[in-house]
């Protein structure tokens, strides 16, 4: 009969291997990143999400010693890019440049293919950009109260353009309708550029456009600005009141841009990325570039950003439902 082998050496080997794996994982997190990081943008190159993501990615590349490479994966209102990141390995090497569109998409699409509020990790908020309520000069109003009165006197006849059904520009108008009780007609376009072009031409009367797109036309006298949609005035247009100041209390809509990761990304990596992003947002050249875009740096902790995302999802769901907007 052969002598039985002791189990102790085997158990020691297994315990040693487990300890080595844990130690290796902690070492990898502490030294993150050790290879290039992919940052997926859900829109085509050149848009505000892409521009801001590239600005921050460049600073992360400089400060963290590895390239943060932007990959544009447009489609389905940014859902295709978000889906790809949500399904990627949670190791910090695939990240997602998020935006307000992702919170709207949770109710706009019956099956967006990912859970933005609970199925991805919040890393950092980059910046916020207000929209600007603008009208064609032919519209006989000079302020928000006159705009509301004009719309109520002409129910269904006042038009507001947008960059498409379910966009933040569209839903800014829908929220305005809900909060003021006016009846206006939405005119969707395939993007902000053709919408603003028709607004300048007088084919439509008004628009809640992104600040970077609308402001140059206001400054050039082609459009009249009535209010900004943020809770505070914009440094880019300090003389333009907020909608809340102009008589729509509680109105606060801003486009925003941030960074998310696959669910389960190690906390040490999330915290490290958050710290580096917030350092980048404090740099004078970054703040100058954001200001040129009409944006304001908005650093947050991962926990605060996570709370912000959940609040945005909850905020837009009833607006989407009331608007009847759908993409499916």
UniProtKB/TrEMBL annotation:
Record has Transferase as a keyword: no
Keywords of the record: Signal
Signal peptide: 1-28
Domain of life from the UniProt record: Bacteria
Keyword Glycosyltransferase annotated: no
Family affiliation: Belongs to the UPF0065 (bug) family.
Name this polypeptide is given: MFS transporter
Species: Caldimonas caldifontis
